[in-house]
């Protein structure tokens, strides 16, 4: 198993990028692909396509750790008895229902999207478009009072509509969390409830996408590939813990417009760099 220090540093950097961008609505896949354009891993194309998705499992484990009390559907008493938390199960069923549109579109079009849309200009366009969308939605949303303030108030219909918006994230540069949050805000969900439901949706989505990528790649990992994947996931896990806590604190007092401006700036930068180089 031969892997030099520079490759390890690249993986750690990618893990940091993943941990930050997975939960902020600025597109983790878009940022990972952009970084790879300028700081490429010494790995096969097939491995990198798998790596950029499966590394996100580290970020998902951070969510499970932070929101365990809200997400675990069982509660134990006296170390012997347990009971089912029906409210948590209901949220998970709504989450599964919301994931149906995205799962269907991914299974049908994932290979086509990877072959034709994973380019700097597509990523830049998506970053800019949804950056503008965030600013416009928040300007409009500031004049409204949310109809849904708690996670438990999200209805089946609301969950499905949010899931339809998640379909947009199949285009790199869009952001899965960004698409679901924009959709949730548009239909009257508060920022905190929108973010929490996004975290719930991320769990089955990322486990499902990772399973698909692992099956496509196969399980014939070399020692170096396993090390790269492990370092990336651990780094993403550690960084995600801090980023999730920051985001939940931030949105209680602020809106998402700052992320919209950031997306626009990065999108323009990507276009400029692509034209120059």
Helix content percent band: over 70%
What is the rounded distance between the termini?
Answer: 34 Å
User: How many whole angstroms does the radius of gyration measure?
Assistant: 19 Å
**Which structural class do you get from the secondary structure elements?**
mainly alpha
Query: Which strands sit side by side, in order, in the main sheet?
Result: 1-2
Overall pLDDT metric: 90
Number of helices: 12
Strand content: under 5%
User: What composes the largest sheet?
Assistant: 2 strands, antiparallel
Q: Which runs of at least 5 residues are low in confidence (pLDDT < 50)? A: none
Number of strands: 2
Order of helices and strands: HHHHHEEHHHHHHH
Number of domains: 1
Q: How is this structure best described in words?
A:
With 277 residues, the chain is mainly α. It has one domain. Helices cover 74% and strands 3% of the residues. It has twelve helices and two strands. It has a two-stranded antiparallel ribbon with strand order 1-2. A hairpin with a 3-residue loop joins β1 (74-77) and β2 (81-84). α4 (56-66) crosses α10 (191-217), α6 (86-117) packs parallel to α8 and α7 packs antiparallel against α12. The chain starts with a helix and ends with a helix. The mean pLDDT is 90.
């Amino acid at each position: 198993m031969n892997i030099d220090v520079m490759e390890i540093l690249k993986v750690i950097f990618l893990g940091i990028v993943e941990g930050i961008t997975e939960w902020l609505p600025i597109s983790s896949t878009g940022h990972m692909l952009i970084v790879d354009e300028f700081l490429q891993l010494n790995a096969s194309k097939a491995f990198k396509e798998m790596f950029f998705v499966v590394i996100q499992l580290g970020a998902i484990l951070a969510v499970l750790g932070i929101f365990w009390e809200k997400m675990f559907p069982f509660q134990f008493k006296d170390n012997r008895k347990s009971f089912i938390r029906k409210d948590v199960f209901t949220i998970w069923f709504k989450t599964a229902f919301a994931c149906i549109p995205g799962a269907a579109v991914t299974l049908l079009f994932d290979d086509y999207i990877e072959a034709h849309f994973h380019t700097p200009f597509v990523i830049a366009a998506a970053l800019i478009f949804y950056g503008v969308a965030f600013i416009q939605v928040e300007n409009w949303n500031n004049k409204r009072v949310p109809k849904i303030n708690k996670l438990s108030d999200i209805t089946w219909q609301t969950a499905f509509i949010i899931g339809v918006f998640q379909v947009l994230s199949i285009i790199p540069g869009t952001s899965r969390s960004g698409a679901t949050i924009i959709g949730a805000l548009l239909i009257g969900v508060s920022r905190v409830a929108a973010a929490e439901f996004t975290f719930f949706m991320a769990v089955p989505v990322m486990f499902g996408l990772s399973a698909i990528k692992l099956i496509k790649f196969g399980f014939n990992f070399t020692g170096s590939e396993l090390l790269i994947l492990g370092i990336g996931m651990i780094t993403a896990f550690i960084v995600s813990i801090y980023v999730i806590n920051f985001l939940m604190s931030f949105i209680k007092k602020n809106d998402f417009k700052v992320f919209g401006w950031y997306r626009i700036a990065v999108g323009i930068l990507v276009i400029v760099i692509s034209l120059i180089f």
